[in-house]
Amino acid sequence: MKLELRGITKSFGTLVANDHIDLVVESGQIHSLLGENGAGKSTLMNVLYGLYSPSSGQILVDDVPVSFSGPADAMAAGIGMVHQHFMLVPVFTVAENVALGAESTSFGGVLNLGDTRRKIREISAQFGFDVDPDALVEDLPVGVQQRVEIIKALVRNSKILILDEPTAVLTPQETDELMEIMGQLRDSGTSIVFISHKLREVKAISDTITVIRRGKVVGSAPPDTSTTELAAMMVGRAVNLTLNKADATPGAETFKVSNLTVMNDSGHRLLDNVSLSVSQGEILAIAGVQGNGQTELTQAVLGLHKHVLGSITLDGKELVGKSVSQVLESGVGFVPEDRQDDGLVGELSIAENLILDLYKKAPYSRGGTLNRSAIAQNSVEKVSEFDIRAQSPRDAAHTLSGGNQQKVVLARELSRPLKLFIASQPTRGVDVGSIEFLHKRIVAERDAGTPVVIVSTELDEVLELADRIAVLFAGRLMGIVPGKSSRALLGLMMAGLSAEEASEQMQSQKESGTTGETGEGVQL
């Protein structure tokens, strides 16, 4: 089935999210839509799936114009979508989730799942999905849940499948499996629109690539186009994708986490007996699929959790039991994973956001009164030093792009002497050019002798920055390995194997010759 978009424009008030976009997806083709977060990719797909009505433009399926008033119309036209955040009911079975919205009932209104189970088994057999129709979704690994979403679309006879950032919650091995499934779907005649900001994935699986920047199509490219060229298309300028950093020269082990357990209000362990340490002048990266205890670890350090057992020390001083302000006073710099909710006050100016944790101190305050000239001078210096793109430091922080908002947070946290620097998802939603800059600043802080902890779900980022890597799974520490460890090893640990078990499994596979290095197929 062929899909064509002609001049699609979608506006939200004065914001033009999609600006006269033309796109052709041929039958049996994997067409990747590449662009940074906020470029307009997901908005465009939501228009295609009937979630949004286009402000102008036309959608054609097999050269016939169509219009959708909702997802049901899109599905009826043969278009299916797997959202980045799965649309599944955890307490329902696979069959119940697949039937949801298209239920078949027998005489008397009793739900009839027999036909749905049969179709699930047929599709599972055809593509090697290995999905049990009667399994509860909440008991399934994330990768299998994603297969359930794909089965939902195929049961509804989707000939065009939209995959929106499908690898965001997958381990490297699960990503490889998804790529194999996509290849099988293409070979069976299904057209796939693959939305991603990950250059290597796009290059590995695409038949053709369309790049979107700021809501506009800036060009198309074949999959053998270099990552450097694709990055330049995404950003609009040349970008150095390789971080050149010297090997770490660790000093004293000044930050220690010992037997740390974090519980929720009902007593469930979100973090289970985790111990690790970081030395001065090194970067420890915390890796793992989102939701495996990373957030709880950083929040426990900052004093944001009530139910904490164990010890967290900095320079020998206990942080557990301290307030957030006391932790910051002890020399901790912290970049939260959600900059808009936790890192900035959007309505305040850039200048004011740059001194949020310093406003009570000289030179920014005198006798309880803010020193506006000192605040203004600081903002001019930091805007220049951190290359914050703004018309004026007096602009409200919410008017900045995501990358520039992140630079404001980073500039503030690195503007005072630190004994520990923690950055959670430091480049989430940030363009490639800003990533280059932020990574250099993080390494510079390491080289100044500060212990650095980075939490990231992006393996590229982990491998780029880390001197050592700690992997969390289900709140437990699977092990700590060197920063130059393979993606295959990290992927197995992210799936729940200890470092020793993962190494043994890889060695066994190597000796038996059953596979190469698992997880390396896509070169994530």
From TrEMBL:
<dbReference type="GO" id="GO:0005524">
    <property type="term" value="F:ATP binding"/>
</dbReference>
<dbReference type="GO" id="GO:0005886">
    <property type="term" value="C:plasma membrane"/>
</dbReference>
<keyword id="KW-0677">Repeat</keyword>
<dbReference type="InterPro" id="IPR003439">
    <property type="entry name" value="ABC_transporter-like_ATP-bd"/>
</dbReference>
<keyword id="KW-0547">Nucleotide-binding</keyword>
<feature type="compositionally biased region" description="Low complexity">
    <location>
        <begin position="511"/>
        <end position="524"/>
    </location>
</feature>
<keyword id="KW-1278">Translocase</keyword>
<keyword id="KW-1003">Cell membrane</keyword>
<keyword id="KW-0472">Membrane</keyword>
<dbReference type="InterPro" id="IPR027417">
    <property type="entry name" value="P-loop_NTPase"/>
</dbReference>
<keyword id="KW-0813">Transport</keyword>
<protein>
    <submittedName>
        <fullName>Heme ABC transporter ATP-binding protein</fullName>
    </submittedName>
</protein>
<dbReference type="InterPro" id="IPR003593">
    <property type="entry name" value="AAA+_ATPase"/>
</dbReference>
<feature type="domain" description="ABC transporter">
    <location>
        <begin position="255"/>
        <end position="499"/>
    </location>
</feature>
<dbReference type="Pfam" id="PF00005">
    <property type="entry name" value="ABC_tran"/>
</dbReference>
<dbReference type="GO" id="GO:0016887">
    <property type="term" value="F:ATP hydrolysis activity"/>
</dbReference>
<feature type="region of interest" description="Disordered">
    <location>
        <begin position="501"/>
        <end position="524"/>
    </location>
</feature>
<dbReference type="InterPro" id="IPR017871">
    <property type="entry name" value="ABC_transporter-like_CS"/>
</dbReference>
<dbReference type="InterPro" id="IPR050107">
    <property type="entry name" value="ABC_carbohydrate_import_ATPase"/>
</dbReference>
<keyword id="KW-0067">ATP-binding</keyword>
<feature type="domain" description="ABC transporter">
    <location>
        <begin position="3"/>
        <end position="239"/>
    </location>
</feature>
